[in-house]
Specification:
Helix content: 10-25%
Number of strands: 10
Distance between the termini: 65 Å
Strand content: 15-25%
Strand order of the largest sheet: 3-6-9-10
Number of helices: 5
Largest sheet: 4 strands, mixed
Order of helices and strands: EHEHEEEHEEHEEEH
Amino acid sequence: MGNAEYMGESAPSLEGHQLAAELAERGIQTTLITDSAIFAMMPHVRRVVVACHALMASGGIVALAGGHLLALTAKRFSVPFMVVTGLYKLVPSFPADVDDHNALLSPEAVLPFAEGELAESVVAVNPTFDYVPPDLVSLFICNSEKGVQNPSYIYRLLAEFYSPEDYDLNPPAAS
């Protein structure tokens, strides 16, 4: 399999196709795989690098759907799971529930309405995000002088970037 970069297709949006094409244009050998083949291909992978939608105070992340499965697979094969993120994505809250930071997209991308009879008898769900807990993240690569951080250090960054009053994202209404 060589030194190829492996790219999951990121179904149903197929964003992985675009990124694979961009890497190939830059002369980087890229192998596009289906999302369901991630476990089968992980033994050939040296490291997993993902972006995140949000960096939680716990050191966990909110990533695109499938991120948790990817992180679990990486851990199973002892492959480092690295997150590239800007510190502007740091959120001063701790997730109480994995669905706290999720949204459902139209099921049409998973099961097209044109499929008529099947679409009427099957429920399709299209979640946007996954919560990846900090114990599955190897390190963060950040866009500041802080550089590379361990997930256990993220809570310290809160004190640097937020005041304690900022932690409550639902302050009481002014009277």
